[in-house]
Model the fold of this input.
Amino acid sequence: MSSGVTQTKVYAYEVALFGEFFPRDLKAILNRITLYTESAAPMHTREIVFEHLGNHLLQAQGDEPVLLRARKEVGDGKESGWTLYSYLKPESVDPKTSLPIPAHTDTLWEVEVKTATPVNTTAPQGGQIQVNTVRSAIDAVLEVQLIMKGLLDLRRKDI
Done:
């Protein structure tokens, strides 16, 4: 007996490109972004960093501990849920002030260009997803790649 109701599956896609640059190039990158931006709005993000209890033991052994981070977008009266993540290489933090230690001038900065929110698509039982939604997210990220060409090499990274 068939009820005639088809089940849909929801898929979330995140489109991202990654790159690296030296601190001396930051001003030129910001100028290029400003040149191609119609408008801007302030972003409000709350981030909490959790350190491992045995931090000092790991550092004494020459190992850098991996820090767990919790991030929440706050603004426009809307708050997102908390997102947990970590970086494989933690950022150096001054134990006296808990502030980041400035990186050496020859240190590469990492950048990630991605869609602001994951692209949600639905797929009916047959499995066809809404390709146009995903394609428009890909086009938006590729547009940033084209704008930054010659100044910042943005590329795909398989995770």
In short: The two ends are 43 Å apart (CA to CA). DSSP finds three helices and eight strands in the chain. The longest strand covers residues 68-75.
